[in-house]
Amino acid sequence: MTAHPAVSQTIASFGEATKAKTPNQEAIERLMRNKASVMGFFVILLFILVAIFARVLSPHDPLEITSGQKYLPPMWIKETPGGKASNPDYPLGTDSLGRDVLSRVIFGARVSMVVGFVPTLVIVVIGTLVGMVAGYLGGRWDNLLMRLTDVIYAFPDLLFFIIVMVSLRDSWLGQFMNGMFLLFISLAVVNWVGVARLVRGQVLSLKQKEFIEAARAIGVRTPRIMTHHLLPNTLGVIIVLIAFRVPGLIITEAILGYLGLGLRPPANSDSMFVTSWGGLLLEGQSAINAQPWILLGPAICIALVVLAFTFLGDGLRDALDPRMRGTK
Amino acid sequence: MGSQPKFSRIEAVVTTYLIRRLLWLIPVILVVGAVTFILMHNTPGGPWDTDPERRQVDASTVQSLESFYGLDKPLWRQFFAYMIGDFNNKGEFVCGLPCGNFGPSYRQRGVPVQAILFSPPEGEDGEMRPWYYSRFGYSLRLGLIALVIAISIGIPLGAIAALKQNTIVDYVSLLVATAGVSLPGFVIAIFLIIIFASWLDWVDVVPRSWDEIRVWILPAVVLGFGTLAFTARLMRTSMLEVLRQDYIRTARAKGLAEWAVVIVHMVKNALIPVITILGPSLASLVTGSFIIETMFAFPGMGRAYVQAIGQRDYSMIMGTTIIFAVLVAIANLSVDFIYVLVDPRIRLDE
Asked: Number of A:B CB contacts under 8 A?
């Protein structure tokens, strides 16, 4: 199967002369031209690094309780009406138990990043698989999927998470991994259907295309059509979906944490997941009148991450499918 | 243009579609109810558990209460009793959900869930206040104010952005819209509370009384911000589409004043898609407010829900979940009805 040397040389020189780009390279170039998206990408990268190196970056132990250092103001406030001076050791001040707010916000990034990405991966794998099978094979399985998605869509997701967390939080499932595992499961149960529906729609339209027909005509087996023809062509939509789904999950976790239904307080200080931004908001809420700055750190972090993902997602959508520009 | 379109046929199709959607509500409510019921019954504790902080309920009272509410029956029968209704031990029919009966609250003993949500509390002088002082009434009023704020700012903002496309006005409104659509309400709430309550000291974060209209502004703005952003974006897109229509050129060509072109021909036509989101917006404003109601200590349904979660008042959680789910389902359904009403291409009155 080796081509004639002259032929391959011609092909090589031809490619060099026109500098042909693959669609992927073109998409990356389009993405790089979008400044907001690039910035969003770096903000997300920054938060991922903060999440990984939380223990190194945080100036204090996030669980260390310092008596007599309660409710210290952040460094830009010299002195509170109550007469407490800020301490440069605690740049964002301290909370009701004298714990360092900055360290707690840094550790909160860990929970948010994990809650954003881990369930998304599960959702995408399951959703893509089901959507592809239902879309390509059609028939009874497709019908079943559509009815299932109708029901799951009808259940307001936040209410579902609340109900699940309320009723299963004290069970063994809810205590596993400080409650992270239960959170993952409930997020995945609701969200995979959206992916499945989207992939199904894509597959339905791809199914009619000539290249699939051609592949079928030369006897390519169904699994191979799925992995080599359908999957690469739906990948763009799936990537955009990930960019919009991750911040959604981060917000959901923050809401549940704020309602006191998120992460359980860790048993020991070696725990991977100490607190979440939602949990910090709940703690700050009780002092919202006197010490509103406790809320500022986690709120700014949530806003930054969500906006970063929105801009990256918009850029990815425009880059991967120029026809979808300006839609959502 | 060979044959006249058969409106009666379209009408039949639309009606069938709407009826099918309406019937689809029933299984949805059943599933929501079943999931909630199963999960709630796996939780420890019951409505008459002895709580050291409360008045104790003696065994015979528990027995009569249980038989009254049918809690001594098997689970499947309790479920049907809740969702439809059942005969109690005396042979009387106790109606369930269809009559708006959500069962007894686990924490506020002797008070049914629907009374907590829909009955107004007694005023200071002991007389009954009107229905809109109930938990639901408060949420509804807050939602309506938020909706009014959202559309009265969002629609002009979107329209102006479209008229001044690619100018600084357009970019600013687009930025506001993007932030409003993607940021969650409670994050916006925190920023606004810190700016207006802490720094500028214009309003109290948690007002003592909700009888003044002034204190409603901040929570209503926060609650309506997402809808405002969404309305502005939709209005801008819709206006841009209308701007290029032939009838706009015609209106200008016949010498109509510019303001008349904008108001009568552009805004009126561009409003059609915006109107369709009003129903679901109101539902999302009434139901999606539990975080914001909690932040401002607002005496609405959402805060009652959050308090019920904190107190593990399971029947209250279940009842409110079902109410919220039904509201959301009705709101989604209302989109279709409104669309049929405002889109002149689908005529039902012929």
From this structure: 112
Evaluated on CA atoms A100, A102, A103, A108, the torsion sign reads: positive
Q: Domain ranges in chain A?
A: 33-324
Q: Which two tokens stand for residue B167?
A: 């100018």
Q: Is B40–A163 a contact, with Cβ atoms under 8 angstroms apart?
A: yes
A259 vs B contacts (CB less than 8 Å): 290-291, 294, 306, 309
Cα dist. B308→B18, B113, B133, B276 in Å? 35, 11, 19, 33
Phi, psi of B44 (to 5 degrees): -70, 155
How near does any CA of chain A get to the CA of B329, in Å? 6
Nearest to A266 by CA among A256, A281, A279: A279
Say which of B24, B187, B310 has its CB closest to residue A299.
B187
Which three-class secondary structure state does DSSP give residue B87?
A: strand
3-state secondary structure A266-284: CCCCCCCCCCCHHHHHHHH
Q: CA dist A47 to A35, A297, B326, Å?
A: 19, 14, 39
Report the DSSP beta bridge partners of residue B270: none
pLDDT single digits (tens) B273-330: 787 777 667 767 776 678 888 888 888 888 888 888 777 777 788 888 888 877 777 7
Tell me whether residues A168 and B42 touch, CB distance under 8 A.
Answer: yes
Pick the CATH number of A33-324 from 1.10.10.10, 3.10.310.40, 1.10.3720.10, 3.40.190.170: 1.10.3720.10
Task: Report the gap between the CA of B28 and the closest CA in chain A (Å).
Answer: 6
**Cα–Cα nearest to B271, from B244, B234, B243:** B234
Phi-psi region of B347 (alpha: psi -120 to 50; beta: other; left: phi over 0): beta
Query: Taking CB atoms and an 8 Å limit, are A163 and B321 in contact across chains?
Result: yes
Element (H, E) at A213: helix A210-217
Contacts B294 to A, Cβ<8 Å: 258-259, 285
Domain annotation for chain B: domains and CATH numbers: 27-118 (no CATH), 134-311 (1.10.3720.10)
Q: Does B321 touch chain A (CB under 8 A)?
A: yes
Helices (H) and strands (E) in chain A, counts: 14, 0
Chain B CB within 8 Å of residue A171 CB: yes
Of the candidates A177, A320, A297, the one whose C-alpha atom is nearest the C-alpha of residue A244 is A320
- pTM given for the model: 0.81
Round to whole Å and give the CA distance between A80 and A308: 33
- pLDDT tens across A102-127, in order? 888 898 898 899 999 999 999 999 99
Interface test with A, best of B171, B178, B186 (most A CBs within 10 A): B186
